[in-house]
Amino acid sequence: MSQNYTASNSPPIAPESYNEFPSNKYVESVSDVSHQVDESEKNGEIQPFFYHETPPVLSVADAIAQMLVSLGVNYAFGVAGGAMASLWGALSNSNIQVLNFRHEAGAAFAATEAYFASDRPSVVFTTAGPGITNALTGLFAARGEGAKVILLSACTSAPQRGRWAIQETSTYTLPSGGIFTPGALFNYAITIESAAQLPQIFRKLALALAQPGGFVAHLSIPTAVQTSLVEGVAFPQLDVSHCQVTPSSEAIAKSVELLSSGPFAIWVGFGARDAADEIRQLAERSGAAVMCSPRGKGIFPEDHRQFVGVTGLGGHASVLTYMEQQRPLHTLVLGTRLGEPTSFWSSALVPERGFIHVDIDPEVPGVAYPHVETFGVRSDIKTYLQELLQHLPGNPLAHLSFPRPEHQAIVPASEVDYPVRPEVLMAAIQKIVVEGSDAIVMAECGNSFTWSTHLLQFAQANRYRVSTGVGAMGHAVTGVLGAALANNTKAVGIVGDGAMLMNNEISTAVKYKIPAIWIVLNDARYNMCHQGMKILGLKGADATLPPTNFAMIARGMGAEAIVVVRESDIEPALEQAIASNVPFLIDVVIDGDRLAPSGGRNKSLAAQGIKSNSAQTPAKPVSFPSV
């Protein structure tokens, strides 16, 4: 199947020829650069433009900082150290806002969420040794989530390598493969040993950042190289536009043929977040049922009559009811890999005649369900749907009704409304935060994820964020800072007490006056583990935590905070947090014995003949997020 690659209409990156990134020449971003031409411009062709003034001499650190500004970077998140003092100074004196975090993993999570909130690449900076290794989990998440993030790290200078330098970072102490070279973690990685490498590095970064999809890079700069001078280095003239991957006419024709053959469903993932309008048009024209992955919540309005529910972890049994009662001939998959958190690889979600799977990565279609017939289309989702809508006729089955996501009625509290039921908390968050504000909502992994994904409803894209590729504890706890900063609005993290104890950045939020809000589900347990082990019948494992007063901790760091122990106090606390102009924490003592919603998963397991109790031997190993 042939594919076409075309550039969008966005302005090109820096068409001028750079001699040395003059310090008085800043450009705001890849997409904001205007053409600069001289009198030799003829017939609409832009000729090379050269600065005629003599540029100042820069250090490598200064040149890298200015290079990042020209690539559109607004924010750098990290933890400083002696080995990267020059680089830290250069970043701090550039147009990039530098935020010093308390842990490198938190900085990387925040950088990831800043990218998704702004659609601009972000930077993580670390010192040598543990600075790099501390950041790896967050960078692993950035790669898995599809973010554009650049790691700047310090490493040991060549003369000191192998001599037990402080925090030595070299092949004597760390494996070079995968950390300092491209691989599963980094799309691009290089150690800068000379200023002469900078033009090629700039070119590679600019071209990669203009491509669709994620990009995680690592530039490691030895301490001595950071202060070396950039002399006689010419930076390349670049004319780079943001690219789109467009479908071939054959792919569109085949899609129309398959989708016109009978009823179909639409399965929406996070990769389709920029095509919300086109998805709604397609659904309403065709009468198709729409379901979404946990990361895809809100791309198609969850209150729409054609929405049948969320699939996967924290999802709805209504999806499986639909597949059982009105199984479609095909399912159009848009921007989701259909991995375990989205599908559990359940055969109950397979349509009668297979998938039409659209993704910018040609290796995605057919991987999650290798035994199912799949027509793969490599394309940008928005472009594909625009083409499809021009050729696909309306469907006379638009009058069909579909099952709706189930939401149990909340029984009024007794006179003693303590502790707080999680479902009552979610209802209040829906009213005050989701419907009453424009805040971004993030949910931490664990039961926070399942409660939020199952019970909260969104009618707009880009309001809800969860991590399913990595699902690291601490992602939402710290990522909420990046989301609030880059989106210039409130961001709310719904998190567990275990994650809050592991890696929070309250102190950082206070320092930079970032309006982050933490809602802590405080049950003194790693409760997904506690409940999961109990359901599996595995005894003896201890997942409890000593009771913690998170409000006291937050106030001790300078934030505002309140403890909620009664259901009647939830809404006032949420209103106070939304109205506050400073970081705010709500410590909610919840009923840890309320089972997190897993009806959709349990029904999926039952459909596959899998049991998850100790009295029966499971057909295959079952882990507690899967029960």
UniProtKB/TrEMBL annotation:
CDD domains xref list: TPP_enzymes, TPP_PYR_POX_like
Location of region: Disordered: 1-20, 601-627
Key words of the record: Thiamine pyrophosphate
Thiamine pyrophosphate enzyme TPP-binding domain location: 445-588
Domain (Thiamine pyrophosphate enzyme central): residue spans on this chain: 265-388
Membership in a protein family: Belongs to the TPP enzyme family.
Family matches, as PANTHER family: ACETOLACTATE SYNTHASE CATALYTIC SUBUNIT, MITOCHONDRIAL (PTHR18968:SF13), THIAMINE PYROPHOSPHATE ENZYMES (PTHR18968)
Protein name listed in UniProt: Scytonemin biosynthesis protein ScyA
Organism: Nostoc paludosum FACHB-159
